[in-house]
C-alpha cells in the first residue's frame, strides 16, 4: 500500500492499473491508490499472466512483484515507454533482508518517487461490523507452516472469554473445518463462528471495529494494522522483521528466533510451535487491558481484572 500510494502521488495525471489476482480487487480499490485492477492470475506462486493485456502499451510499467527477470520480462512484453524494475539495467539492488514495506518504498525512492512506509491506514469501511468490539481470532493461514495448532487457539479463546471478552472466530474459504474445530474445543458455537470467508466489506468492517485481532502470519494481520486495530500475530518460519507489523505498542509480534524455515511448508514450523498458549493469552490480555493508558483507536474494550 505505501508503494502504491507513492506511485499515485507521483503520477497524478495517469490512470493507475494494478495487475493482480481478481480476488484482491476490493482490497486494492479500498486503498485509494489505484484506478482499476487488471485481473491477472498467478500460477502457483509465480508471476501473474499479462498475456491478455488489451493495450495500448503502458506509459510507465512498474514491477512490484520481485527481483527476478520473470516479472520484469512480463511487463517488458507490453512494450511500455518506461520500465522500472529491480532486474532492469538501471534498477536498484535487491534488499533481500528488508521488510516488504521498506523494500518497495526504497525501490521507488531510487527512481525519484517518494513513498512513506508508514502510509498504511485504510479509510473506515462503509459496511457495519457483524460483531463490533469483539476480539477476532483467525486460526487459519495460507500454509501449514504458519498455522498454530487449533487446540492452542481454543485454549486462548477460553481464556479470553473467561476474562469477559466476546470472541469471534473467522476463517477464509476452505477453512471451515479448522474454524469449527477451534469452536468446538473452546465450547462456543452459533453467531460467533464466521465460516466460509466473509465478503471483503464485512471482513474489513469486522477488523476495523474489533478490540483485538489474534492470528498467525497471514493477510488478516496486515488488515488489522491497516485499520489501526490492536493485534497479536504469531510468526514461525519467517521473522517479523521481514513480514511483520511496524514497531508499535498496539501490535505485538510473537516469534522464537532461529534459522529461517519454509513459509510455504505443510506442517507447523518448529519456531511457531515453541510459542506457548500462556504467552499468547498474556499478550492479548495486556493489549485489551490498555495498561499504558494510551487513547484507543477503535471501540472501547472491556478491562480485565
Automatic annotation (TrEMBL):
Lineage: superkingdom: Bacteria
UniProt keyword Cell cycle present: no
Keywords annotated in UniProt: Glycosyltransferase, Transferase
Pfam (any one): Glyco_transf_9
Gene3D superfamilies: Glycogen Phosphorylase B (3.40.50.2000)
Keyword Transferase: yes
InterPro entries listed in its UniProt record: Glyco_trans_9, LPS_LOS_Heptosyltrfase
Family annotation (SUPFAM superfamilies): UDP-Glycosyltransferase/glycogen phosphorylase
PANTHER family: LIPOPOLYSACCHARIDE 1,2-N-ACETYLGLUCOSAMINETRANSFERASE-RELATED, TETRAACYLDISACCHARIDE 4'-KINASE-RELATED
Protein's recorded name: Glycosyltransferase family 9 protein
Organism of derivation: Streptomyces bangladeshensis
Lineage of origin: Bacteria, Bacillati, Actinomycetota, Actinomycetes, Kitasatosporales
